[in-house]
Amino acid sequence: SAVISQKPSRDICQRGTSLTIQCQVDSQVTMMFWYRQQPGQSLTLIATANQGSEATYESGFVIDKFPISRPNLTFSTLTVSNMSPEDSSIYLCSVDGKAGGRNEQYFGPGTRLTVT
Amino acid sequence: TQLLEQSPQFLSIQEGENLTVYCNSSSVFSSLQWYRQEPGEGPVLLVTVVTGGEVKKLKRLTFQFGDARKDSSLHITAAQTGDTGLYLCAGRNFNKFYFGSGTKLNVKP
Question: Looking at residue B93, what is its pLDDT?
Answer without folding.
Answer: 83
